[in-house]
Design goal:
mainly alpha; 89% helix; globular
Length: 157
């Protein structure tokens, strides 16, 4: 089996397994607890910040320069602000302050964000495998753990 196919299958497995597991947990845990949801979202964000700070940025600095890294981060931030503004305009044009619309708006923004952010997750896993097997597997496992709360959050929408 070629290395590209092997990397693709590992990335596909880890990328979907975490979200699926989170969705299953969300379905079976019927009681919504703000403390629990807060904990798992904080855990996921802390895990991703650790990956970014200790794995991805140092690897990126070895490959490119800081300006390119800052441009990439800036593009990501601007993209999410743009998506938020567009969805906000769409919902404010209906002039409805219904709670259902607010939940729908939040769900749409989260779905757009997750769809956009899954692309760099795949790039990170593929790049990690390109650098070393150890880095690729550690990124894949960390992203899998990171995706569990996302699946739980999506199943509650």
């Amino acid at each position: 089996m070629s290395e590209i196919l092997k990397t693709t299958l590992i990335g596909l497995f880890f990328g979907t397994f975490g979200t699926t597991l989170g969705g299953i947990i969300g379905i079976f845990l019927k009681k919504d607890s703000n403390k629990f949801l807060s904990f798992i979202l904080s855990f996921a964000s802390g895990l991703m910040m650790a990956i970014i700070c200790f794995d991805l940025i140092p690897e990126a600095l070895e490959i490119g320069d800081i300006l390119l890294i800052l441009i990439g981060i800036g593009i990501g931030v601007i993209t999410m602000i743009f998506c938020d503004v567009i969805v906000d305009r769409k919902f404010n044009s209906k002039v409805s302050k219904d709670k259902t619309n607010n939940l729908l708006k939040t769900g749409i923004i989260v779905s757009i964000g997750l769809a956009i952010h899954n692309f760099p997750e795949g790039l990170a896993i593929g790049s990690g495998f390109g650098a070393s097997l150890k880095l690729g597997l550690s990124l894949a496992l960390a992203i899998c753990l990171h995706d569990i709360p996302e699946g739980r959050f999506q199943s509650r929408q």
